[in-house]
Amino acid sequence: MQFSISKTSLIIAAICIPILAQPLNPPSITSTSQLLPNSKKYIPIFAMDGKLKTSWVEGALGEGIGESLQIKYKSPISFRSLSIYNGFGDPKLWAANNRIKKLKISTEDGIEEIVTLKDSLSLQMIEFKSEVRAKEISLTIQEVYKGTSPENTAIAEVFFNSEQAGSALIPPKNTWAIGKWKTKSNIARIQLHNDGTCEMGYETAKMLCTWTEKGDKVIVSLEATLPLTDTDILEIKRRGNPSDPILEINGKHEFISNRDGV
């Protein structure tokens, strides 16, 4: 994926994003198998830890058909949708591993639905016909998109869109950056979320990315090279007045705050 962006047209905005308290209903997560069972590299909790750099990878022979995650909450949750990052979270390893094509979602009360996922690492939201209330939920692999090394199937992140669902991990405290830039034909954006993930691009074509804090900078790792900076790594640093900041990109590109809404 490539973006054609003029250096003079890039406008970045910085705002503070509040970190909300996490609901006290964290899930316990198990799986029917995991890759390298004696290792902690691909454990089931990595599918709900809020980090794309970690993933659950099944460890059965073959493509992982029939392998599942079991998610159990202390008390029931109500939800109408779930969100998922399909496949291995590291963009450099995503194509090598299988991605899920058909996923069966079932509950302890016998509710069952099979959904088709897109072959994309961008965030996908699955909406149900009616509200689901459950304490125990299973996600079972039914069919896969084959990777270049098609022995392993992975889930980077999955979460239920529910006010009663707690997080398996408390997000970092210093989430602060959100931005957009204007081109002649459209508006593109980069948005950093407090779970370590980010999205970049247009509403119809988004590039997934991840970010980490490094001192007073945020390091963004893209899945493609950005023409503006000729790199797939962005170092974003904020300085100046907090109410009217200047953002520094890779130590040389400076952009004033954008007054338009994002």
What structural category characterises the helix and strand content?
mainly beta
- Assign a percent range to the helix content: under 10%
Shape designation: globular
Count of helical regions: 1
What is the oligomeric state here? single chain
Strand content: over 45%
**Element pattern in H and E:** EEEHEEEEEEEEEEEE
Mean pLDDT: 76
InterPro entries: NADase_transloc
Protein name: Nicotine adenine dinucleotide glycohydrolase
Signal peptide: 1-21
Domain NAD glycohydrolase translocation F5/8 type C: 28-161
General description of the model:
The protein is an all-beta fold. The chain is built from one helix and 15 strands. The protein has one helix at 91-94; strands spanning 28-31, 56-57, 68-86, 99-107, 112-116, 124-145, 154-160, 178-182, 187-192, 197-202, 205-214, 217-226, 231-241, 244-249, 253-256. Strands 8-9-10-11-12-13-14-15 form an eight-stranded antiparallel beta sheet, with no helix packed on it. A hairpin with a 4-residue loop joins strand 8 (178-182) and strand 9 (187-192). The radius of gyration is 19 Å and the shape is globular. Mean pLDDT is 76; it is low at 1-23, 169-187 and 256-262.
